[in-house]
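Input (structure):
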C-alpha cells in the first residue's frame, strides 16, 4: 500500500509528515486485521522444538540465524555517502514500479535521518 500510494504526493510536491503518518497508520491497521484473521498456532513453542530437535535440525536453524544476522547488523554502520532522496527516474522502463527502492526511504527521511532509512531497508528485507 505504501509503495503504490506514496509516489503521488511526492510527485505533486506534497510529501509531508501528516499524510505519511495517516498512510502508515492505515497500513498498520490493515496489518492488524490480517494478523487477527490468522489461525491459532497449534505447534510447540520454539524453545521446546529446539530441545526436541536432533543435531541436523539445530544446525540448520543456526545456519539460518547466521544468514539473517548480517542483515540485522549492516544497517547499524554509518552511511558512507549521502543517499535516500525520493525521485522519479524517467530513464527507467517503469519509473513508478512498486519495487523502486528509493520509495522505502521517504518515510525515514521525513521523520529522522539517513540512518533510519538504512534500518527501514533492513526491516523490509
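Output (sequence):
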Amino acid at each position: 500500500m505504501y509503495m503504490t500510494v506514496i509516489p503521488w504526493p511526492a510527485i505533486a510536491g506534497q510529501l509531508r509528515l501528516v499524510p505519511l503518518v495517516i498512510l502508515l497508520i492505515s497500513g498498520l491497521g490493515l496489518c492488524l486485521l490480517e494478523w487477527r484473521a490468522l489461525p491459532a498456532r497449534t505447534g510447540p513453542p520454539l524453545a521446546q522444538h529446539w530441545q526436541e530437535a536432533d543435531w541436523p535440525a539445530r544446525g540448520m536453524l543456526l545456519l539460518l540465524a547466521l544468514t539473517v544476522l548480517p542483515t540485522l547488523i549492516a544497517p547499524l554502520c554509518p552511511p558512507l555517502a549521502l543517499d535516500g532522496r525520493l525521485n522519479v527516474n524517467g530513464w527507467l522502463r517503469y519509473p513508478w514500479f512498486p519495487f523502486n527502492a528509493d520509495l522505502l526511504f521517504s518515510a525515514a527521511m521525513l521523520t529522522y535521518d539517513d540512518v533510519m532509512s538504512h534500518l527501514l531497508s533492513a526491516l523490509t528485507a
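Notes: The mean pLDDT is 78. Residues 28 and 34 are 10 Å apart (CA to CA).
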